Amino acid sequence: MSFKGYVQVYTGNGKGKTTAAIGLAIRALGAGKKVLFMQFMKAKSYSEHKILPEISPNLTLETLGKPFFVMKEGSMPEEELEKWKDKVVIFPPGQPPQEYVELVSNGINKAKEALTTGEYDLVILDELNVALHFDLVKWEQVKDLIDSKREDVELVMTGRGATEELIESADLVTEMREVKHYYTKGVMARIGIEN
Questions:
Q1: What's the structural domain count of the chain?
Q2: What is the CATH number of the domain that holds 71?
Q3: How far apart, in Å, do the first and last CA atoms of the chain sit?
Q4: In angstroms, rounded to a whole number, what is the distance separating the alpha carbons of residues 150 and 161?
Q5: Predicted confidence (pLDDT) at residue 66 exceeds the cutoff of 70
């Protein structure tokens, strides 16, 4: 029996979306599968970047981010925004930074190739949901990825703010729901746990 690949979405405001995707990648590698782990909107500053490239020759890690985050005007309360200070670029709705749009667009092209050539069994597009939410990629581009995917390739997309269209198009959707988080007490991202 041949392998049937599905479309999975990990979303929600709770912690653990990327962590779950990394766990799935490890499981797939253990089964001898080839994995592309492509991170949108993340710079190579997370602890997983130090270990993932060394785990297996069957894992390709690509990071498509800048050393700053982007956010639509009005999408975050001022007191929360103050914590980010110079780490975020605020843009008017519908006018995301062109350099980020181009970076994400190049990533979409690479992802489509990975989904259609048969080189990979599992393609993880980490934080693509956020890129879609912030208009760095259009729904039509994401829909094209889903529609173009080979039948035997598993596709996973992570990030907060999955759109209704994406949720409807997926075969599996997991929502990480925040019940309680020490972040609300002022604990920032810690190396090896959140970063």
A1: 1
A2: 3.40.50.300
A3: 40
A4: 26
A5: no
